[in-house]
Here is the input.
Amino acid sequence: MISYDMDTSSHSRKEVPKLYGYIKDDSTSRFLTFGLLMALACFQNLSRTIGTALLFVASKQLAFGVILVEMILYHLHKLMRADYVCWVAGLEGNGRFLVGFVVHTVTKIIVDFTGMVHCRGAKLTGGALFSVMTVYSQCFPFMALVILDAMEVEEEENMMERGKLVIALAILVACWGLCVTGFFSVIKREYLWTFFATETAADFCRNTFLLSKDPFVKLMSAFDK
Here is the structure.
């Protein structure tokens, strides 16, 4: 709902035309896009949740360790690119880092477990990192299963047989892949680059100002960001 509403909002499309507007305006395309957004979120959540559950079966300490390392790497990536605090308007001092920490932590969890398309914006994860994270989440349960086998953990009560679990996970990834293909084929082609963009938030704001010919967009990119 957030991804759909933000993109179809006339205000969002006018203020940030580089990011919003990928959903076509005819009713059929909007219906299909909304359905695919829902399906993608469901498959993303299933893959990540199953993978996390498998890790906890292998070792609670390992599961928490993997989650912590992922989070640290994500924050380091943002810090190394000088992309941690610059997009928050009006904040000064240490408050910028505190807000940045909270926002980036929450955003990573949301992307990991839902693949929310809205988060691909440069001020959140950024297009390229968003795509990497969603693909990683699809690989995550297979990686957890390999770890589980390597540690020779006995099957838990009510746990699906390994062979059937692999088949179920393969079907899950295949369905996700079909939905991704359908989603890219239904949205406007000129917005495909937003899923692979490497711009930082500062770059995005600068480019929006410099490349736009709309006075309103220039005004918002200069004084509202």
Notes: The mean pLDDT is 90. The radius of gyration is 20 Å.
